Amino acid sequence: MAFPSWFSFSLVWVFCKALLLVVAQQNDQSTMLALINELSISGWNSSTDYCSWAGVTCTKSMVESIDLSNHKLKGNVTLISQLKALKWLDLSKNNLQGPIPSAFGSLSELEFLDLSFNNFGSAIPSTLGNLRNLRSLNLSMNGLIAEIPDEFRRLKSLMHFQIFGNNLNGSIPFWIGNLTNLRVFTAYENKLGGKIPDNLGSVAELELLNLHSNQLEGIIPESIFSLGKLEVLVLTMNNLNGNLPFSIGKCKGLSSFRVGNNRLIGSIPTSIGNISSLTYFEADNNSLSGEIVPEVAQCTNLTLLNLANNGFTGIIPPALGDLMNLQELILSGNSLFGDIPKSLFRSKNLSKIHLSINRFNGTIPEDICTTPRLQFLLLDQNSIHGEIPRGIGNCVKLLELQLGSNYLTGNIPHEIGQIKSLQIALNLSFNHLHGTLPSELGKLDKLVSLDVSNNQLSGSIPSALKGLMSLIEVNFSNNLLTGQVPIFTPFQKSPNSSFAGNKGLCGDPLSYSCGKSVGPGRETYRHKVSYKIILAVIGSGLTVFIMVTVVVLLFMMRERQEKASKAAGIAEDGIVDPPMIIAGNVFVENLKQAIDFDAVVKASLKDSNKLNGGTFSTIYKAVMPSGLILSVKRLKSMDRAIVHYQNKMIRELERLGRLCHDNLMTPIGFVIYDDVALLLHPYLPNGTLAELLHDSIAKPEFKPDWSTRLSIAIGVAEGLAFLHHVAIIHLDISSGNVFLDATYKPLVGEIEISKLLDPSRGTASISAVAGSFGYIPPEYAYTMQMTAPGNVYSYGVVLLEILTTRLPVDEDFGEGIDLVKWVHNAPARGETPEQILDARLSTVSFAWRKQMLAVLKVALLCTETTPAKRPKLKKVVEMLQEIKES
Ligand SMILES: *[C@@H]1O[C@H](CO)[C@@H](O)[C@H](O)[C@H]1NC(C)=O
Ligand SMILES: *[C@@H]1O[C@H](CO)[C@@H](O)[C@H](O)[C@H]1NC(C)=O
Ligand SMILES: *[C@@H]1O[C@H](CO)[C@@H](O)[C@H](O)[C@H]1NC(C)=O
Ligand SMILES: *[C@@H]1O[C@H](CO)[C@@H](O)[C@H](O)[C@H]1NC(C)=O
Ligand SMILES: *[C@@H]1O[C@H](CO)[C@@H](O)[C@H](O)[C@H]1NC(C)=O
Ligand SMILES: *[C@@H]1O[C@H](CO)[C@@H](O)[C@H](O)[C@H]1NC(C)=O
Ligand SMILES: *[C@@H]1O[C@H](CO)[C@@H](O)[C@H](O)[C@H]1NC(C)=O
Ligand SMILES: *[C@@H]1O[C@H](CO)[C@@H](O)[C@H](O)[C@H]1NC(C)=O
Ligand SMILES: *[C@@H]1O[C@H](CO)[C@@H](O)[C@H](O)[C@H]1NC(C)=O
């Protein structure tokens, strides 16, 4: 009896299911077609089967997974919620906006949902709590606000839950402790407050908990460690207080423990010795106290120990020397005392010893650096006595040596000169050192900052110190030094306070002269430099400059002769009589009133207005009666042959004046008198990029700052990309032609030369080499023509200068090697990017270092030998902007 009815029910059921499938299939077809219209995805073609589209997989014609990560998607993705069989949806790294579609809550099969790295805003829709099968949910890096929805307590299958980088507030829900399958929970960089729920410990599988940069309060619950699966715990930058729980010792698998920048108190639990996997222990900037327990030395895998800025006392346990994997030992800013244990220097991998600002009162061990990996030895502001050991010369990898403000006695060992790698700083100030300055210090040709002030050093400053070719900061003050300050730019450019307090010292930059030999000193130096520059730039921008000057002046001579025949009697030297202005124009309408041509000319006749003097052109600062300040570039007469280019030149200048881009220094006008052309530009108070990078002693207030440098790099690329867009090839890209305004916005200059000398326009027969030495692309040697990829190469050199703070050509690199070759050959020499990048920037933060490494990649591309392999400038701008935003 029941049989038939069961049978018919069964039939109906099968039929219904089939029907459902058909319907569903049709739905997927129409949904997918509708999605093409909405999202226009490359690789999705309506005339082919949607199951074959890029990123789509199906089971029985039902769409089961969609991976559209990194597709620049912008549209409305709500339609996807109609794909009922969907198990996997990855829309990460797109430009999706607005609220997360709440309709996604109806995707009941969904196991993997990744919406991270988009611009989703508003609150997280509570409907997502219906996704019972969800194992992985990633909503990180959006603009999500409000609280984590309470409905998520139903996501019992969740294994990975990532919501970092949003603006979520409220507290971490208590029910997280009931998601028993959870392995990964990251909610860092939000505005979460309240306490860490103390039932998190019942999440038996939890391996990674990262809650840094929130506003969490209260204690680190003991229970977190109770089940012992935790591998990574990051709670940095919160307001957590209380002790480090003893139960931490239960987490044998804990490898990374980071709780810096909180308000933790108490001591390090001895149970730390039980955490055999510990590699990274960071608890800096808290109020921890007590001694550094010797149990730490049992964590044989420990790589970094950072307990800086706490209240630790006692000695460094000598057993720490047994930690053969230790790379960084950072204990600065505590009250530690005693000796620096010899055993530490046995640690083969140690690259940083940072013990500054403590009370260490022993000596520096003689056999320091028996295993020379050490890059940073920072022992300043302690009470260390005794002599600087000669063994210091074995620290051949050292980048920075800080021994200032101690009680060191004896001589400066000449072995310091063996530390050729010293780069960031050598600081021996505020000690009791005596004797003479060893001339071997001059071998430290990478050193940027040298401070030996406030000791009892005597004798003269050895002229061998001229070997300190990278020097930017120097301080010899308050010693017993005598004799003349050697003639060496970094010395003369230093403030006289760098030499003050030495009764016997004389000469520039001090105000006491040394008698007869003083006068010519500085001049000799200047002379040498300009000689060197001329040599370095031979066949280069200057040649271009000569050509322009020739072109410009030739026709002016003609004009002048015409004028002269009309109004005879203008004095040849042109100083007594005000020179006759032949032509002049201001292209910018609202500046016309403010610019007075006579004042421009007058300013350009006064040496005291000179900003910058080259052999072939001079730049003057000109203050107008209106108060406006101009930069006036004077092109000097070179030749008296006659060429008819005046009108053409003026037309070109006017056209350039109309080019409008934030990062281009376009002429705002010109004045022509006698045989001189003056080009007018806005006055930029911050000089050039070259000065900023290589001359920063002139601007001691400007600290190296990576963000500024990156913005400058992007600005220059944007300016050049615009030039290429309007089909202008720059003929002389160099850091010296990048000018900086008051906010350090870069403006690419010398574009008029590029225009006036564009060979295709027949302004001059240019076979001269374009570009400055070190910036000239290799192909130029045989093509003799500047091209867009050639510009990219020169720009790449500027990028390398920005990254390395090194000149494009430098004897340092070796015979025939310029900056480009030096950087490209680094891997072959076995050098790491760290040794290439300016360590003053790359060692500041991981974020900076990461960006610098990424920019280095771009610079390497730009300076490829094969022009076709170099990216377009537009692409360069995109890449750099992406790096900046990362
Ligand atoms: C789509 O596929 C058809 C047939 O394979 C082809 O003719 C057409 O060019 C493709 N359309 C696009 C936009 O790729
Ligand atoms: C997206 O499309 C759905 C219908 O598919 C519509 O209800 C919703 O309002 C749209 N959202 C936006 C932000 O346009
Ligand atoms: C989002 O999180 C999931 C789960 O942890 C992970 O597999 C995925 O790679 C993450 N997405 C991105 C773009 O990092
Ligand atoms: C959380 O953010 C939402 C939206 O911005 C706001 O309305 C709410 O007051 C905030 N709650 C707390 C506790 O700050
Ligand atoms: C967590 O689960 C336990 C037992 O499974 C239950 O008693 C408790 O109410 C749950 N807590 C929350 C906040 O859901
Ligand atoms: C130390 O932590 C406090 C509070 O978290 C913070 O204000 C301060 O800037 C931190 N100092 C350093 C050097 O990080
Ligand atoms: C951890 O170490 C402490 C002291 O070092 C010891 O007393 C304790 O038994 C150890 N605990 C475990 C779980 O191994
Ligand atoms: C220490 O590190 C090594 C290499 O990473 C690893 O193989 C080993 O398992 C670690 N030891 C412990 C106790 O975790
Ligand atoms: C170092 O300082 C500690 C604590 O102040 C003191 O006990 C010890 O005698 C000092 N050692 C030396 C060598 O001065």
TrEMBL record:
It comes from Aquilegia coerulea (Rocky mountain columbine). This is Protein kinase domain-containing protein. Residues 1-24 form the signal peptide. It is found in: Membrane. Gene3D superfamilies: Phosphorylase Kinase, domain 1 (3.30.200.20), Ribonuclease Inhibitor (3.80.10.10), Transferase(Phosphotransferase) domain 1 (1.10.510.10). GO terms for cellular component: membrane. InterPro entries: Kinase-like_dom_sf (IPR011009), Leu-rich_rpt (IPR001611), Leu-rich_rpt_typical-subtyp (IPR003591), LRR_dom_sf (IPR032675), LRR_N_plant-typ (IPR013210), LRR_R13L4/SHOC2-like (IPR055414), Plant_LRR-RLKs (IPR050647), Prot_kinase_dom (IPR000719). Residues 605-883 form the Protein kinase domain. It is a single-pass type I membrane protein. Keywords: ATP-binding, Glycoprotein, Leucine-rich repeat, Membrane, Nucleotide-binding, Receptor, Repeat, Signal, Transferase, Transmembrane, Transmembrane helix. PROSITE patterns: PROTEIN_KINASE_DOM (PS50011), PROTEIN_KINASE_TYR (PS00109). GO terms for molecular function: ATP binding; protein serine/threonine kinase activity; receptor serine/threonine kinase binding. The chain crosses the membrane at residues 533-556.
